[in-house]
């Protein structure tokens, strides 16, 4: 059984509540742990109890993560435990597009040791979400289901519901990566007061549809920032 310290260290290495590496200022939020609870509450309410660890493990309690952190976390799962720095910048070229000034290189920020059995279980469980779980309608059975257009691209996903105290429906979160056998893209969608995370699948579907069909249209699209 994981201790609270081991649970927090694992979440940290997945990038939750940590800087993602993006070039702009970002909020980093925080993880639910004894230190965070002591900062937020006073008196006996600030004590860390065994039940707090359970709530933290399932994403409840005082966890506060950004959509970019969720995307980074999902990409780390897809990379089987290697977390890379996020970036908004791919490369910079000269004004006449003839010279490459700068190109981003992958930067590893942290790693999580994951056994093959653990990776296999996570991948299968997230893929089951799209076939028999909370995202089934959007990926397998609905009129515009993903697999009716992309039968060869298996998606691994997870839906989430975030409670809040501002009234109205819960927020909805949705993360996914694809393809299952050789991941290329990771996505995080967060919708305020969506009611449930499955609604984010429609947005993720549109993003993946554009990503996986770009080769079909690349001959007709002129990319501005291309060298040569």
Summarize the structure.
The protein has 228 residues and is α+β, with helices and mostly antiparallel strands. The chain has helices at residues 4-13, 34-40, 50-57, 67-78, 116-131, 136-141, 200-212, 214-217, and strands spanning 82-84, 91-93, 100-103, 108-111, 156-162, 171-178, 185-191.
Describe the structure.
The model has no long low-confidence stretch (mean pLDDT 92). Helix content is 33%, strand content 16%. The strands form 3 sheets. It has a 3-stranded antiparallel sheet with strand order 5-6-7. A two-stranded antiparallel ribbon has the order 1-4. The protein has a two-stranded antiparallel ribbon with strand order 2-3. The protein has 8 helices and 7 strands, in the order H-H-H-H-E-E-E-E-H-H-E-E-E-H-H. With 228 residues, the chain is α+β, with helices and mostly antiparallel strands.
Offer a few descriptive terms.
single chain, alpha+beta, three-stranded antiparallel β-sheet, 8 helices
> What's the average pLDDT?
92
Protein structure class = alpha+beta
> Total number of helical segments?
8
| Poorly predicted regions | none
Distance between the termini: 56 Å
Rg estimate, integer Å? 20 Å
String of helices and strands: HHHHEEEEHHEEEHH
The portion of residues assigned to helices is 25-40%
Major beta-sheet overview: 3 strands, antiparallel
Query: What is the count of β-strands?
Result: 7
Biggest sheet: strands side by side, in what order?
5-6-7
User: Proportion of β residues?
Assistant: 15-25%
Give the overall shape, derived from the CA principal axes: globular
């Amino acid at each position: 059984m994981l201790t609270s310290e081991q649970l927090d260290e694992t979440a940290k290495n997945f990038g939750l509540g940590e800087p993602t590496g993006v070039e702009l200022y970002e909020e980093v939020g925080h993880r639910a742990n004894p230190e965070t609870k002591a900062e937020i509450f006073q008196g006996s309410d600030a004590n860390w109890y065994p039940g707090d660890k359970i709530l933290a493990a399932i994403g409840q309690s005082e966890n506060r993560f950004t959509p970019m952190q969720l995307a980074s976390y999902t990409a780390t799962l897809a990379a089987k435990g290697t977390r890379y720095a996020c970036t908004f910048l791919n490369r910079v070229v000269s004004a006449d597009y003839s010279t490459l000034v700068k190109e981003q290189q992958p930067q590893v920020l942290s790693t999580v040791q994951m056994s093959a059995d653990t990776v296999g279980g996570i991948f299968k469980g997230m893929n089951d979400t799209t076939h028999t779980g909370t995202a089934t309608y959007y990926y397998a059975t609905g009129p515009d289901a993903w697999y009716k257009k992309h039968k060869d691209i298996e998606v691994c996903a997870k839906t989430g519901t975030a409670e809040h105290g501002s009234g109205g429906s819960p927020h909805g979160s949705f993360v996914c990566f694809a393809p299952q056998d050789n991941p290329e893209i990771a996505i995080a969608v967060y919708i305020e007061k969506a009611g449930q995370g499955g609604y984010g699948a429609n947005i993720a579907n549109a993003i993946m549809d554009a990503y996986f069909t770009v080769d079909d249209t690349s001959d007709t699209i002129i990319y501005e920032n291309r060298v040569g």
